[in-house]
Structures are given as structure tokens and as C-alpha cells.
Amino acid sequence: MIQPARRAHHQVTFAVLALAVATYALLQSLVTPVLPTIMESLHTNQTTVTWVLTAYLLSASIFTPIMGRIGDAVGKKKMLLVALGALAVGSALAAIATGITLMIIARVIQGVGGGILPLAFGIIRDEFPLPKVSSAIGVLAALTAVGAGLGLVLAGPIVDLLDYHWLFWVPLIMVLLATAAAVVFIPESAIRTPSRISTTPALLLSAWLVCLLLGLSEGPDWGWTSGKVLGLLAGAVVIGGAWVVVEARSTAPLIDMTMMRLPAVWTTNLVALLIGVGMYALMAFLPQFVQTPTSAGYGFGATITESGLILLPLSITMFAVGIASGPLAARYGSKAVVVTGSAVTIISFALIAFAHHDKWEVYIATAVMGIGLGLAFSAMASLIVEAVPAHQTGVASGMNANIRTIGGSIGAALMATIVTSGAGSDGIPKESGYTNGFAMLAGATVLALIAALAIPAARRGHPATAQDLPHAELGLVPGGTLLGADPE
């Protein structure tokens, strides 16, 4: 029998994917704490500089599922290199930008890198021994949140020691290393979904996401009853409905609505939405809380660097738990891990809402939150991959990541409204605003727990769809090992 060409060991492939995912995750949050510095350096105003975040968010939301779908069709490695290339070009442009216009364009290009996550999940499913898939996906999923947390931690020291341009030079170096390693070590999967990719669903998806996320992002500033915000949200509903109809009738849908209606998929996506509400809103507003001068009667007057360190326990515990999530899911089931993570996250939000008068209380709350989010994020990614056929891994993972981002936008918008509603004449919010806001996030996580309990249980340690495709299509040989991978 002719033996297949030897492929890189799956652990090497994982290391390359981890570097790519970590780089993308860092760029999600590195610029958040230093927007005032960027505003001053690029001679712009508060309203305009927020587009450095908004443009990236909109671009990533559009391209994450689209890149995953194209990867399923034409090859995941090819599209991973495209995503890494966009991240590199965007980082280079942002690093050399001397005006706000080029900076915003650079951030739009960086958003194409959002496809890295679903493509990485798809590559893992295609290339890893079946028993290793859940653990590897869990760690990468945890890395997305860990990287976002570390971005807040590292932003201050990078700017203090160098300058804000290095917020993009450092990721650029990481991207170039990841790209070179991907070319050499990541194999191209034989699992494809050869079909025409319709442009109409892609345009409709892009349009309703832009309307929704722009309306949510600008609602606190423009006013929730303003014509622009109401028009954007109404447009999101109308265009979103049209998108669903077109996708359901399409012979080559961008997002398979039948797949999205699978009980394991829609319930997990609902958990992702609600968990996203809490996590991203916390990362946006906890640094503001601790930076509040003590003269306000709360807060710690922390610097940018100190406020980032407040989130360091979250990143540490999240990564540690993310590594352990695979074995836990194999033993107890991914659903049980998501339920446990959601329950722990409720405790952490309650702590931070009502016990935030000393720094040690906040450190404990963020450490507990890392445990909860690490469990939930890691197992949710595994549940999605387990629930869909191999050829839909990329697009399903992309939509899950997208829904999490939408949840983050909803959470940030609601938090901004609650926190600023009682601000004094000096513009500093009252402590009660933060307390009510963090309590609201705890409430969202309670709903996430309820949704997690509704997730259908799968056989422990076995992807629900491992039997969906014959061994030849999955690339498996007897014993459950992917062709070319070394069993362990």
C-alpha cells in the first residue's frame, strides 16, 4: 500500500495556530487603553478616534464567518495565509500611520484576520487525532480571551517603554513568524466543500451586521431614541430577516440555516452571545473603574499599566483552565463544563458588583472570572465543532465567534448607558452606575447558565458528528487517527 506523505506532527501544527490566534487576540484590545494617546498623536477628536475600535469590530464581524466558509470550500491553509497576510498588512499600515484616516483603513484590513479563528478550528479538526481535537480547540478558544486580556495588560508597558506604534510592530513580528511557520508546517486539508459561494448572502450578512454593530456602538453617544440609531437597528432587523430568507432558499448558502437550527448549535450560540455580553463589557469598563480617582469615593486612581494588571489574574486562570478543559470535557462532557463555567462566572460578576472597595477583592473576582470564562469558552468551541459535519467546521465556528462579538457589543452598549446615566457635572460616573452595570452583567450570565442547561447532552469524549462522515471522508484510519498524524 502506498503510504501518504508524512505531515507535520499535530503538536507542531498546534504551536503555529496558537501563535496566529494569540496575535489576532492581542490586536483586539491592545489599542483600547491608549486611545487618548492615539487621539493626541494623530490630532483627532474623541468621536473620530473611537472608529479605531469600531472599524476593526465591524470588519472582523463581517469577515470571520465569510473567511471560514471560503476556507471550507477552497482550502483552510490557503485562507489562513490570506488572513495572516491581511493582519500583517494592516499592522504595518497602522504602525506607520500619521493620520487617523490611514489608521482606520489599517484597522479595517486587520479585521480580515478574524478568519484565523474558524480556520484554525477547521485545521485542528482535519489534522488532529480524534481524541486530541476537543482539548486543542479548547485551548485555542481560551487563547482568544486570554490574548484580549493580555492586550490590556501589555498596552501600558509597551507605550511607556517605547511608543504606541509598537502596539502594531510587536504583533506584526508575531504575524510574520506565524505566516512563515504556517507555510512550512501546516498541511492543506483534503476535506473541502466544493460549491459556489453566493455573493448576495455575503452582502446581506455584511449589511445587517454593520447596521446592528454600528447602532449598538454609537447608541450611548447618539442617543438610543435618535433617528440614526433607530434607523440602524430597524435596518438590521429588516436586512437580517431578508438574509435568513435568502440563505434558507439558496442552493449554495453562505451560512446553512439548517445547521444553525441544530439544537446543539443554537443553544451554544445563545450561551456565546450572553457570555460575550459579560466578558467584553467587563474588559472595557473595569479598567475605567480602577482608573477613577479616589476623590470620587471609589476607584483606585490606577495608571494604564496598573489597570491592566488588575486583569492579569483573569488571563492567567483562564489559560490554565483552558488547558484543563479538554480532559474535563472528555470525562464529564462539554455541556457540563459550559454549565459549570457559566455558574462560576455568575459568582465573579456578583463579587465585582458588590465587593470592589479594595484591590484584593477585584483581584479575586477577576481570578474567579478567568476560571468561569476559561471553562465556558473552551467547551463552547468544542460543542460547535462536535455538533456540525467536518465540512462546516469553519463557517460554524466563525458564526459562533461572531455571535460572541455581537454579545460584546450589546454588553458594552448597555454598560455604557447604565454607567454614564448618573454621571456628575465633572463627567465622572457615580459608583452606583458601575455597581448596577456589573450586576446587569451578572444577570446576563444567569441567562447564559439557563441556556447552557438547554444544550443537548452528547456522548462523553466523543464528537457528536464523528459518525456523520465515513472514515475515508474524515481522513481517518482504523483506530480513530487522522492520516499522517502520529497517535499518542
TrEMBL record:
Chief location bin: membrane
Major facilitator superfamily (MFS) profile domain span: 13-460
Domain of life assignment: Bacteria
Compartment list: Cell membrane
Transmembrane is among the record's keywords: yes
Gene Ontology cellular-component annotations: plasma membrane
GO MF entries: transmembrane transporter activity
Entry keyword set: Membrane, Transmembrane, Transmembrane helix, Transport
UniProt lineage: Bacteria, Bacillati, Actinomycetota, Actinomycetes, Frankiales
Protein name as it appears in the record: MFS transporter
TM region positions: 12-31, 51-68, 80-98, 104-124, 136-158, 164-186, 198-217, 229-246, 266-290, 310-329, 336-356, 362-385, 406-425, 437-455
Coiled-coil zones: none
Membrane topology: Multi-pass membrane protein
InterPro entries: MFS (IPR011701), MFS_dom (IPR020846), MFS_trans_sf (IPR036259)
Record bears the keyword DNA repair: no
PROSITE patterns: MFS
